[in-house]
Amino acid sequence: MEDKILEVKGLKKYFNMGKDSTLQAVNDVSFHVNRGETFGLVGESGCGKSTIGRTIMGLYHKTDGEVIFDNENVHELKKKEQFEFHQKMQMIFQDPYASLNPRSTVREVISEPMEIHGLYKTKKELLNRVYELLEEVGLNRDHANRYPHEFSGGQRQRIGIARALALNPDFIIADEPISALDVSVQAQVVNLMKQLKEDKGLTFLFIAHDLSMVKQFSDRIGVMYLGNLVELTESSELYEKPLHPYTQALLSAIPIPDPDIEEKRERIILQGELPSPINPPSGCVFRTRCPMAMEVCSQVRPVWQEVEQKHFVACHLYDKSLKDKTPLRDQPEIAPL
Ligand code: SF4
To answer: Is the whole-model pTM more than 0.85?
Structure first.
């Protein structure tokens, strides 16, 4: 039996761009996150995944739909309830430098949320908790009186994680937490988050564009394209049996560590640019780049359906009532590396 801590139902987030134009950043997205799991949200930059994270946090007003966290509607919380909500849900940001106040010491950065929420009565208790948090993220108490610029990118992200942990949250939204880091440091930060998840029983929404890192950390994964969720399933299933043509193309771009298999790897090349979310294609939003696109794809938006157990996809290829599935293009374009 699933224990849903977060439910996102038909969420839309549009931005008014003036002159009667609207940017459809998130368009009718639904998914849930179970307590204690890591749900990965992947897709190219500009696909709306960070906007979802911010709308869940209540940093953006929603345009439509619902976000239910711990049985409460996030966008209908009263002031006091919002305060409690932000204690339970915290965010780790992409750019660890921009998200840390350069004029504050590490101690001030980490203790600020605890002071606002009045968690400790004495300065000594508060300082001890700062030391404890620094140690939990692989730093030490000597770092407390230094400033963010004195640290490397990976260390700064560790400070960001310590700050996110300060209020003992249940749920963390990690918004591209490793994108700004060197490749050598990315795995260390992912391993730290994994460890903290185990130790503290945390639930994560992990937003990223690097599919290989997402695989390492996520139990289930949702794939986004141009504001739409196009596929969702368990992590291993997604990598072994991707159904949506966009997921197949994304996965074909990941290098394989085994040199024999890597040599034979073929990459699906997507044609064209990512369309603008101000003027998305009719029908299926992926149809302008999809190697399998059919006539119906420009006319009808594919329905989100469970095509195999716990494997959801939005694509006409899996529509059983559709008889003619002839692609408009000859063959998917596949290139050897
Ligand atoms: Fe491609 Fe059509 Fe499926 Fe969209 S619905 S992914 S265009 S085959």
So the answer is: yes
